[in-house]
Amino acid sequence: MTQVWNDAVFAHWPVSEAAVRAILPPGLEVDTFGGTAWVSLVGFEMADLRLRGLPTVPGATRFPEFNVRTYVRGPHGPGVWFCSLDVPGWLPTLVARAGFVLPYCRARVVRRRDGGHERWEVVRAWPDRATGVLAVEVSPVDGSDPAPEPDAALVDFLTARWRLYAATPGGRLLHAPVAHEPWRMRPVRATAVDTGLAAAAGLPVAGAPVFVHRAEPVGVRVGRPRLLPRVAAPMTVWFDDDCGVCTAAVTRLRTRADATVAFRPNRELTDPALRVAAEDAIVVTVGAEALTAVAGVRAVLGRCGRSGRVVAAVLGLPGVRAVAGVAYRWVASHRAVISTRFGLTACAVPGDQAVRAERSGR
User: Fold this and answer.
1) Phi then psi for 138, rounded to 5 degrees?
2) CB 221 within 8 A of CB 2
3) What is the DSSP string of 39-89?
4) Closest residue by Cα to residue 84 from 62, 107, 61
5) What residues are paired with 6 via a beta bridge?
6) Residue 131 near residue 201 (C-beta atoms within 8 A)
7) pLDDT above 70 as % of the chain
8) Cis peptide leading into 209, omega within 30 of 0?
């Protein structure tokens, strides 16, 4: 997809790294400059929007757009995460949501010019409601000081972004390359701001931006979006480390489980219901979900490579699952006797870092 961005205005604020992390899906990390995360408001006039090799999109020849964006690192390196993209038309809103899974919003976006001043006003109508204002002094008035020059390295960090990341409604990450000629920018001064759009995105900021700059028109090409491999949520296996059978099983599993799986003694559980369940069965937690007994074993095996996934699938078969459940309950109730008969003694299980170091040294 190609387009032209005319007269883009960028305003930048530092923001809490924890706030940015809270809005990102698994698979993306907060990108920081000097240990600080950033959020930007960006207004520009979109022109000549078209799919490669086709005429311009009807009804989308020229329109204003106003974005809230932050900065991330993903599997393909640094990129931009768009929190919202406000435009005045339904067609670009729906096309971009369907084709790029970007959070485009239907809004009244007005750009006003008055001499050396420029003002952006946004009133969002769909899918939620929010407002924002960004007014800048494009040309210094007589007697006013010129806008300060920002740190060139920081400007490069915030604007030299060659990839965007987005997520499907089901949480699947995708990425698309972004290409354009180098920005030609100059600093300008903000005269009024309303950061309600950033607050609506979960990134509240206050006061004037640290710096603002205005860019000359650039041609932009956005490549085809591509899905990234699914990212598994972290899993914790809670086991009885006083049990020889449990310790032996976990020691074996740890050498095969991937890096998303952690193993912890069940005495460290804080949820009373899970502590009771852990007295007689393995407990596996993934986010807010908790699995026990055979269901928990299957979940762990699903992260133990191809052979583990095959065994997990077999354990999921109706007849096998029932037999496995009976066997599991018998072993759980006789685990002390089994440990003694086979000489399985409970012992400290190596930590995650030790196991990973052993794997890498093989």
Assistant:
1) -70, -45
2) yes
3) EEEEEEEEEEEE-TTSPBPTT-SEEEEEEEEEEEEETTEEEEEEEEEEES-
4) 107
5) 45
6) no
7) 90
8) no
Q: Which residue has the tokens 């899918």?
A: 127
Q: What is the DSSP letter of 133?
A: E
**pLDDT over threshold 50, residue 352:** no
Amino acid in the structure at residue 340: T
The whole-angstrom separation of Cα 81 and Cα 65 is 16
Evaluate whether 212 touches 10 at the Cβ level (below 8 Å): yes
CA 32 to chain centre: 14
- Residue among 87, 63, 86, 79 at smallest CA distance from 28: 79
Give the residue, 341 or 161, on which the prediction is more confident: 161
Whether the CA torsion 330, 294, 287, 240 is positive or negative: it is: positive
The CATH superfamily of 2-227 is Acetoacetate decarboxylase-like (2.40.400.10)
- Listed by start position, the domains of the chain span 2-227, 235-361
Q: How far apart are CA 229 and CA 227, in angstroms?
A: 7
Report the pLDDT averaged over residues 38-52.
88
Q: How confident is the model at residue 357 (pLDDT cuts 50, 70, 90)?
A: very low
H/E element, 166: strand 163-167
In the predicted structure, residue 97 carries a pLDDT above the cut 60:
yes
Tokens (6 digits) for 33: 């400059």
Q: Enter the tokens of residue 113.
A: 């010019």
Rounded to an integer, what is the distance from CA 14 to the centroid of its chain?
18
C-alpha span between 356 and 300 (Å, rounded)? 17
Residue 109 tokens read as 């976006």
- What sign results for the dihedral spanned by CA atoms 10, 13, 15, 17? positive
Residue 240: what residue type?
D
Closest residue by Cα to residue 283 from 236, 322, 246:
236
Contact indicator for 227, 174 with CB cutoff of 8 Å? yes
